[in-house]
Amino acid sequence: MKRLAGFLVILLLLTLVACGSSEPTPPPTLSLSLLATDIAYDKERIEVMAGQPVRIMLNNEGVLEHDFSIMEIPHVGEVMGEEMEEEMGHDMSAMEMDPEVHVAAPIGGRGSVEFTPSTPGEYEFFCTTAGHKEAGMKGTLVVQAP
Ligand SMILES: [Cu+2]
């Protein structure tokens, strides 16, 4: 009987080890809202954690079109964007720009983008609408080590 108990304990431990070695559960998505007005964001610094999915919700309360873009940022998995219907024809000021993370919000509308940064560091985010970055529509996304 004692041996059976010991066997069960070992079996239980093995099961735990097996579970532990499988894909770790990703931390819950961090949702952040960013307000865009003419011509500014309400935050110039956003802090997130490497390995944690982050969802940026961009609300445009201006009378100009705005977006949220990061040219290059190491990330795991896909960048998932959601833009409002009328945004489909969104024309980036410079078509040669191909930001890795991009979401636009039409006038009075919103959009969101979800991604998981993988590498600690500081990354610049900005609005690709012509002249907006120069006018100060930019900030820093700080990815911290977990
Ligand atoms: Cu803008």
- Text of the CATH class: Mainly Beta
Q: Provide the number of structural domains.
A: 1
Distance between the termini: 45 Å
Quote the average pLDDT. Answer: 85
What is the level-2 CATH architecture name?
Answer: Sandwich
The rounded Rg comes to 21 Å
Q: What is the helix/strand order?
A: HEEEEEEEEEE
Poorly predicted runs of 5 or more residues: none
Structural class: mainly beta
Binned strand content: 35-45%
CATH-wise, what's the superfamily?
Answer: Cupredoxins -  blue copper proteins
Main beta sheet: strand number and arrangement?
5 strands, mixed
CATH topology, by name, is Immunoglobulin-like
Task: Name the hetero compounds present.
Answer: copper (II) ion
> How helical, in percent, are the residues?
10-25%
- Spatial ordering of strands, largest sheet: 2-1-4-8-6
Rough outline = elongated
Figure out the total of helices: 1
Q: How many beta-strand segments?
A: 10
Describe the 3D structure.
Strands 2-1-4-8-6 form a 5-stranded mixed β-sheet, with no helix packed on it. A 3-stranded mixed β-sheet has the order 3-10-9, with no helix packed on it. The chain is built from 1 helix and 10 strands, in the order H-E-E-E-E-E-E-E-E-E-E. It is mostly beta strands. The radius of gyration is 21 Å and the shape is elongated. It has one helix spanning 2-21, and strands spanning 30-37, 40-41, 45-49, 54-60, 66-70, 75-83, 101-105, 110-117, 121-126, 138-144. The mean pLDDT is 85. The chain has a single domain (27-144), classed as Cupredoxins -  blue copper proteins (Immunoglobulin-like, Sandwich), CATH 2.60.40.420. The chain starts with a helix and ends with a strand. Bound molecules: copper (II) ion. Copper (II) ion is lined by residues 39, 66, 127, 129, 132, 137.
